[in-house]
Each structure stands twice: as C-alpha cells, then as structure tokens.
Design goal:
Structural class: alpha+beta
Largest sheet: 4 strands, mixed
Strand order of the largest sheet: 3-6-5-4
Order of helices and strands: EEHEHEEEHHHHHEHE
Radius of gyration: 22 Å
Helix content: 25-40%
Strand content: 15-25%
C-alpha cells in the first residue's frame, strides 16, 4: 500500500498567560507491504488530523476491511461514497467528484508529470505504481478541495451532488416559506408513493435557509 499526504498536529502554547492553539503539518510518504503493519499505521492516525481520499474506494476498502466501522459505510449500489474507520477517521472516494475519466486521465489533465513528477507507472514496478497512484490521488484531492473553496466558496463535500446542493444553499437559497393551510400539505403528500418513508409535522411551520 502507498500512503502519501499531510497530517495535521494540534498543540497549544502559552503566551502572556493565555493558551493558543497551534497547528503544524507533517508530510508522510510510506510504502507498506505487510497488511498488519498497514492497518496499524492507519489506526495510529488521529481522526481529526486528515481525511483519507481514494480513487475507487469500492476496491481499496477490502484491504483494510478489518478496521472499518461498517455501520458508517455510505454507498450507492456497489459504489462506496464514504466510510469511517473504527477510530473515526473518514475516507472519501474522489471518483464521486470527477464522475468520468480514469486516474491516469486526471494525472495528465492536471499536468502532474510536469508539476510533481507523478505518472502512471508500469504494473511490473509495484513500488513506483503504488506510490505514483497515491501521490496522484493526493494531488487530485488537493485540486478538488481548492476548486470548491476558492472557485465555489464552499467546503469539500462527499459527492459532486452534495457540493451542488451546498453551493445552492450557501449562495442562492435566500428565501423561506411558512405554511398555514392543511390543503397544501395534503396536496403535497399525494406526490409521495412507493419505496419512500416521509415524516410530516402538521400545523404552522417555518423553514429557513
């Protein structure tokens, strides 16, 4: 397994009688061939120090299935959207943002060979293949995170659909409605049928953005 990225460490410092939170970042780059060692390494990462990112999490998760909190796995069919380890550390699948194109396509699209020396290595060179894929996934994650934050003004979300909803609610949804007629509620409920469970609260309600 290849591991590449940044882990944040939080400490406090005292200055003039006050405590201040200090954040430092450590770059990690690990190539691990023993599964138990790999699982131990993942479990040693504190849950708020980073977010794990993958490209095709549905495949990758079988290698650390023992330490996954299975009740946290969010998936659509065979496609895994996100999960948590038993320690609380989160993992997202970047393929739920790119939606099309392979990791190699994104390596070339983002000019990673020129910028970072990252390429899609041959299968017969396991070390280069694994480490380049790990680095490519990290840089793709950084690109997506920066795009959402600097271009869209929203935090990173679990899927591109969730990002679209967050963008809408943060930037464009400025209205709110209040219902005071049961007729409208009854009319709306007629649209719901089959395969869903909805809960409605009767009476006058206010919904804010």
């Amino acid at each position: 397994a290849g591991i590449f990225g940044d882990i944040k460490h939080y400490t406090t410092r005292r200055f003039e009688g006050k405590h201040y939170k200090v954040t430092t970042t450590k770059r990690i780059e690990e190539y691990i061939t023993n599964q138990d060692e790999f699982l131990t390494f993942l479990e040693s990462i504190k849950k708020n120090s980073c977010i794990m990112v993958f490209f095709n999490l549905s495949y990758d998760k079988i290698f650390f299935d023992k330490i996954i909190a299975h009740d946290s796995v969010l998936q659509s069919g065979s496609r895994v959207i996100m999960l948590k380890l038993k320690t609380g550390l989160k993992g997202f699948d970047l393929a739920n943002h790119t939606c099309e194109g392979s990791l190699e396509d994104w390596i070339n699209h983002l000019e990673m060979p020129e910028k970072y020396g990252v390429k899609k290595a041959e299968l017969n060179d396991k070390f280069e293949r694994v480490m380049n894929d790990a680095k490519a996934t990290y840089y793709l994650g950084r690109f997506l995170e920066d795009f959402y934050y600097y271009e869209c003004g929203i935090p990173f979300q679990v899927t591109i659909g969730a990002a679209a909803m967050k963008l809408f609610t943060m930037k464009y949804f400025t209205d709110y409605w209040a219902r005071d007629e049961d007729f409208i509620s009854s009319y709306e409920r007629q649209a719901y049928f089959g395969g869903r469970v909805e809960l409605f609260k009767r009476g006058k309600q206010k919904t804010y953005s």
